[in-house]
């Protein structure tokens, strides 16, 4: 992304008329709603693919390797999501973080509706890629607003409370999708019943976008203008979407093995990272954005995204196959993992803030949470490998691992946010999630390939645990910066 153009506009509202002075919890509420619907929108793909596989319907049901193809669709979405991470943060630093959040929600709602209207594999992939490109800008701008407009003594719990919307959205996406598909069937949609959850979530996303726009419009020292950043995002997204779709179409035309297509996505990632790093070096911001500590956090979070989207995308199918249960029962069991975030995200932030107020670091908490999740992921893999586990056992392991896994994330975000100045935080979180998203891109397709190759999901579970074990070591090497907070 070009670094030229108008001078960057940073988040300066707190220096003029405060955006949320005395009302930062209101900000938390709207950002939580944004996370909720954004994650419901993106989570819906996994249960929809699982329904097609189970019912041999749609454009997945008659595929020779349905799990691999389903995973590839998820990877295409996250390739798009990945490629706008840095662009979203950089545009937020320039045009305003409020503006980018509204653009992201509007974009996601419209493209989720389009996803439901598509009639074939290629059209669905196009819509999902475009959805990912728009949703990719939400993350870096949301993190900056919370950090910039929340008192330092409550910053991590704010990040956790807002991020709990992710867990709620995952839970809703996993649990509600099979029922919405059934509802579509009762309405006579037949083999197109899979479209119903996409219609519902798309409409709700547009309603959340409208409410967020109204909330932001009356706050800040400048008018809320979404046109200019939306046009810049469109201009940026077109070549990214073309590159992703060319990759998919070539793979489809020449019947490439799916692992080769995944390597193509990794090549796009490496090209994007190279362009971004060159731009950062050219503008003299290497000290802020490319130092040793931030790279340890960047790379360590690949494991978080790998595990997040392995369990989010495939957990319903894993539970259904391992426990020989119905799709509805499997969805309820799998939801224990996502639902644990409703507790884990804010509690992790609350504990971390208590340590900061006591003058202690947050890094030990991050290491403990990552280590405990690793052990519990191994236990889940053993249960799957042994065959015919009970739904109660699987649900209990998923819930306990989810508590520690979700508590980890706001702690890491807070650690990272304190390593850069406010004017560079959008770019910092954009690059952070750009690097980390390689885990989300690779996880669904690698896990699907392992399932088709071995006939079991255990290999995918053990791989996720091994990746997280590496993150434990990386977080232990981080030298954190403990913020000074006012006495309370």
TrEMBL record:
Any Pfam family matching the protein: MFS_1
Record-linked SUPFAM superfamilies: MFS general substrate transporter
Subcellular location: Cell membrane
Domain spans labelled Major facilitator superfamily (MFS) profile: 27-483
InterPro entries linked: MFS, MFS_dom, MFS_Na/Anion_cotransporter, MFS_trans_sf
Membrane-spanning segments: 27-53, 65-84, 104-130, 157-181, 193-213, 233-251, 263-281, 293-315, 327-352, 364-385, 391-416, 428-450, 456-478
PANTHER family: FI19708P1-RELATED, SOLUTE CARRIER FAMILY 17
UniProt-recorded name of the protein: MFS transporter
Native source organism of the sequence: Streptomyces endophyticus
């Amino acid at each position: 992304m070009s670094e030229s153009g108008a001078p960057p506009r940073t988040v300066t509202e707190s220096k003029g008329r405060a955006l949320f002075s005395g009302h930062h919890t209101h900000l938390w509420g709207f950002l939580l709603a944004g996370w909720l619907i954004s994650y419901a929108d993106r989570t819906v793909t996994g249960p929809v693919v699982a329904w097609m596989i189970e019912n041999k319907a749609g454009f997945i049901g008659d595929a020779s390797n349905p799990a691999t193809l389903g995973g590839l669709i998820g990877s295409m979405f996250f390739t798009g999501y990945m490629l706008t991470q840095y662009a979203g943060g950089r545009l937020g630093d320039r045009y305003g973080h409020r503006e980018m959040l509204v653009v992201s929600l509007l974009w996601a709602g419209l493209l989720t509706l389009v996803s439901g209207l598509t009639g074939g594999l290629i059209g669905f992939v196009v819509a999902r890629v475009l959805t990912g490109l728009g949703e990719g800008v939400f993350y870096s701008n949301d993190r900056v607003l919370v950090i910039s407009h929340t008192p330092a003594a409550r910053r991590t719990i704010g990040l956790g409370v807002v991020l709990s919307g992710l867990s709620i959205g995952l839970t809703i996406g996993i649990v509600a999708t099979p029922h919405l598909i059934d509802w579509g069937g009762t309405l006579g949609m037949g083999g197109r019943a899979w479209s119903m959850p996409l219609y519902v979530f798309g409409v709700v996303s547009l309603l959340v976008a409208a409410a967020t726009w109204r909330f932001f419009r009356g706050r800040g020292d400048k008018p809320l203008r979404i046109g200019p950043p939306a046009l810049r995002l469109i201009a940026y997204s077109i070549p990214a979407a073309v590159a992703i779709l060319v990759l998919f179409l070539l793979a489809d035309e020449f019947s490439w093995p799916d692992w080769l297509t995944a390597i193509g996505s990794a090549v796009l990632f490496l090209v994007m990272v190279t362009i971004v790093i060159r731009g950062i070096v050219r503008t003299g911001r290497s000290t802020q954005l490319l130092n040793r500590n931030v790279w340890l956090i960047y790379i360590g979070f690949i494991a978080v995204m790998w595990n997040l989207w392995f369990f989010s995308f495939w957990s319903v199918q894993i539970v259904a196959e391992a426990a020989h249960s119905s799709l509805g029962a499997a969805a309820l069991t799998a939801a224990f993992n996502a639902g644990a975030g409703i507790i884990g995200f804010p509690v992790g932030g609350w504990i971390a803030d208590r340590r900061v107020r006591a003058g202690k670091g947050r890094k030990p908490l991050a290491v403990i949470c990552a280590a405990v999740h690793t052990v519990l992921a191994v236990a889940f893999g053993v249960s799957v490998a042994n065959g015919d586990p009970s739904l109660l056992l699987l649900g209990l392991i998923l819930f306990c691992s989810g508590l520690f896994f979700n508590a980890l994330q706001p702690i890491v975000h807070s650690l990272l946010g304190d390593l850069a100045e406010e004017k560079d935080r959008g770019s910092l979180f954009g690059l952070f999630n750009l690097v980390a998203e390689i885990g989300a891109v690779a996880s669904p397709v690698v896990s699907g390939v392992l399932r088709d190759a071995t006939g079991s999901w255990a290999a995918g579970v053990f791989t996720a645990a091994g990746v997280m074990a590496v993150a434990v070591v990386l977080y232990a090497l981080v030298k954190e910066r403990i913020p000074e907070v006012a006495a309370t």
